[in-house]
From TrEMBL:
Ranges of residues in domain NTF2: 22-145
SUPFAM superfamilies, A to Z: NTF2-like
Protein name in UniProt: NTF2 domain-containing protein
Organism: Leishmania shawi
Region (Disordered): 202-241
Pfam families (UniProt xref): NTF2
Family annotation (InterPro entries): NTF2, NTF2-like_dom_sf, NTF2_dom, Nuclear_transport_factor_2_euk
Annotated CDD domains: NTF2
GO biological process entries: nucleocytoplasmic transport
């Protein structure tokens, strides 16, 4: 039987530190396998023929109980199909060292599904495997979904996996630099255009100033001459009379 190996003390009850180490190592392995799609039934190898698994959805009034490795495998396969693609975040972990080197593990966490997040409580009873040193198996576990909330992603938000954060940040940095460079080029082009327009206006003003003719003297104006000759003609007419 492929049970999960852990360090085990020869005493009848493990020290609290050892129990916590056993629990932490077990949970890291268990949930790394739990999130694998279409492979959940294989985790029945962590149980034996006397093991129990209890599953309770938050709407269920009666829990579903599986006894024995085959029954556990069937229940895990059904759970695998129901959950679909998933990720798990463990929020709290408590451990209790029990007699006969057993370890009780109580953990709370959040399971992220497609469009939903489900808060859950998972309790394990880890028991040493007979005739196999430093090895534990799941004597019983109790999985209860406490709540289910629709996952609402804010508009404009980006959902990425944890291992893609560095690449995303680098790509975002490049986009920001390119946008800043583009804005700088546009600003420089506007400045050059304004300078060209200003120079053209100055050149046009200078050309207009050079083309304006000088004003003529009063003696050369024909209108003024005519106005001065008119009274003289009237005096001549009076003398002739």
């Amino acid at each position: 039987m492929n049970n999960y190996p852990t360090a085990m003390s020869e005493q009848q009850s493990l020290a609290p530190e050892t129990a916590f180490t056993v629990a932490s190592t077990f949970l890291a392995y268990y949930y790394s396998e739990f999130v694998k799609l279409n492979e959940l039934a294989r985790m029945s190898d962590l149980y034996d023929e006397r093991s129990y698994m209890t599953l309770v959805d938050f709407r269920d009034e009666v829990p579903v109980v599986a006894h024995g490795r085959n029954a556990v495998a069937n229940l895990l396969a059904k759970l695998d199909s129901t959950l679909g693609q998933r990720k798990v975040e463990i929020i709290t972990v408590d451990t209790v060292a029990l007699p006969h080197n057993c370890v009780q593990v109580i953990c709370q966490g959040v399971m992220y599904l497609r469009e939903y997040r489900r808060v859950f409580l998972h309790v394990f009873m880890l028991e040493p495997t007979a005739y196999r040193t430093k090895t534990y198996h799941i004597a019983s576990d109790y999985l209860r979904f406490v709540d289910s909330e629709k996952e609402v992603i804010p508009e404009g938000a980006v959902v990425i996996a944890a291992d893609q954060v560095a690449a995303y940040l680098e790509e975002s940095r490049r986009h920001i630099e390119e946008e800043q460079r583009r804005q700088l080029l546009e600003f420089q082009q506007r400045i050059r255009l304004q300078q060209q327009q200003l120079m053209q206006q100055q050149q046009q003003k200078a050309a207009a100033t050079m083309s304006i003719p000088a004003p003529t003297s009063r003696q050369n104006r024909p209108v003024a001459s005519a106005s001065r000759d008119q009274p003289h003609t009237q005096e001549q007419q009076q003398q002739q009379q």
